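Reference record
================
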Amino acid sequence: MEKQLPHEHHDPNTQSHIMEALPTEDMVRFVSDALGQLGDPSRLRIFWLLCHTEECVADIAAYVHMTSPAVSHHLRLLKTAGLIVSRRDGKEMLYRAADSELVGELHRIIERIGEISCPE
């Protein structure tokens, strides 16, 4: 059964293509959550850093001039949003950007909008 819109502004073929391409609610929620996390300046800065290096909480805190507990809080939110991943190395937990298409695109967009260059 094809969904009918209350007003027909397009021909039926265009409407059908749009309806087929419309992202699912789960996908929209996933992208919205990721973008929402990057709306915080501290998380955006941490995310950008982790797009370029793998670091522990103490080093991230030193880079961004924050306390380790504050950094840990932001890392939890970024990880929950699927933007970063972690791995244990002995007693330390190391963090880096997730290897996903969304993360790569967000990294490029941040650098384009902010006119930031990747470190060499």
In short: The chain is about 55% helix and 10% strand. The chain has a mean pLDDT of 87. Helices lie at 12-21, 25-37, 41-50, 57-64, 68-80, 101-113.
